[in-house]
Amino acid sequence: MCPADTLAHSQLHQIQAALTREDRGITVAVYQECEITAVWPGLFEQPRGIAIDVGSTTVAAHLCDLKTGEVLASAGVMNPQIRYGEDLMSRVSYVMMHPEGAELLTLAIREAINGLLVELSEQASGDINDILEIALVANPIMHHILLGINPVNLGTAPFALTTSDPVDARAIEVGLIAHPEARLYCLPCIAGHVGADAAGVILAEAPHRGEGMTLVVDVGTNAEIVLANQERLLVCSSPTGPAFEGAQISSGQRATMGAIERVRIDRDTLEPRFKSIGSDLWSNEAGFLEAMSGHGVTGICGSGIIEVVAEMYLAGVITPEGVVDGGLADQSTRIRQEGRTWSYVLHHAETADESDVVITQNDVRQIQLAKAALYAGIKLLMDEMGTPSVDRIRLAGAFGSHISVSHAMVLGLIPDCDLEHVTSAGNAAGAGARMALLDRNARIEIADTIRTAERIETAVAPDFQRHFVGAMALPHQSDPFPHLFSQVEPPKAKAVTSDDTPKRRRRTRSNR
User: Fold this and answer.
1) Alpha-carbon distance 184 to 202, whole Å?
2) Cβ 33 vs Cβ 441: under 8 Å
3) pTM of the model
4) pLDDT per residue over 344-363, tens digit each?
5) Per-residue DSSP letter, 328
6) Domains contained in the chain, CATH given
């Protein structure tokens, strides 16, 4: 039996008295900072639990000691549902078009989680039957699919949740392998596209308890946004799409070996230097090519895309409207014509096996569309809150952990704020899942907190389109960024626009 320091002896005797002699083998797990206990048949020297964050791209899990809260092992896996659709809505479309689609997606994610449970148990030299509790967060579509709920209602307006309540069930009932009596707890969803992962972020970050106005952004294919102070808690989601993860970008890829993740562009020569995953060296440093020889430079991932577009703007390669300036072709061979538009060559292929990494006009547009959707969602919350600015910004999720906050602000991904107060929250959703795993009071707390949250539906908000249009410019059409440009030198003002513009106009008129 586990040590049960906080469990009164009288309580333990009552539990034992209620059991038959044959059932006297029990385990009592005492949760941190909580007097509530849980009881399972069997003797366990080290009862364990799993906290899981089910994302649309990756699934991350942490095996924890239920007595001490220590993380014993961590692992992640690509979400196998990607083969049915790159983003969430394409997976919902798959379900709509294939009668067996919902079941296939459910089986795929359950198999992935079960694989993680086995892997983590082996990492920590334990047995799968030692897992007594599972706490899980997920976006609404992943949440519904995992639980075997058809997600089609989330594919069309009004994007209604089938259930928003916390789920407390036996893990075996949803096809997860662990102790036969292991419990599964899913944090509550909040709104149509604001899920249990956002609830986990709120639980971990507690923005409604801090001083000042706090903005928390979990950037993904569907960004979840929280704006709070001690008086109000507002939430919404915004459809950013997969561009920040490398999808729909000509040289885009996931953050794997060979992907460009950091970029700087010289403002005078327009020559770039960059870092790729697999080497700590910049591309202009001795030894870079040797360090990358095993896999080469293969493309550019989300953090690199943010930086290269922001750097192109700061260097004057693109205008505030996002147009690649073809007039710079005489100044640099990096500016390459692509039909009627222009591109920027970030990396020239070194071998026949590589391809040039090129940032096209369409790539810039995809990033503009994604960042404008995110910024518009933030502005809706700021309008509702009645605040013109925020005091603190926390960037959650894997993407938020790796992007440069200054480049994100240059791009107009987030509003102006003191850069010292813009920080990464890491995997806050996963941290919230661990809190719910280890502390039953945290489950009560987040359920109560969510009931006070005010939901803003971006899909039907009348001002969303206006904010979206304004946010298409870099960093914004009209919003000032005094904090940013007090620390980052703005691009030099140009007297004339790109020289390819009049050529296109003459050609257009001649074709009429």
Assistant:
1) 20
2) yes
3) 0.85
4) 999 998 877 789 999 999 99
5) G
6) 1-45 (no CATH), 46-186 (3.30.420.480), 197-242+366-485 (3.30.420), 245-361 (no CATH)
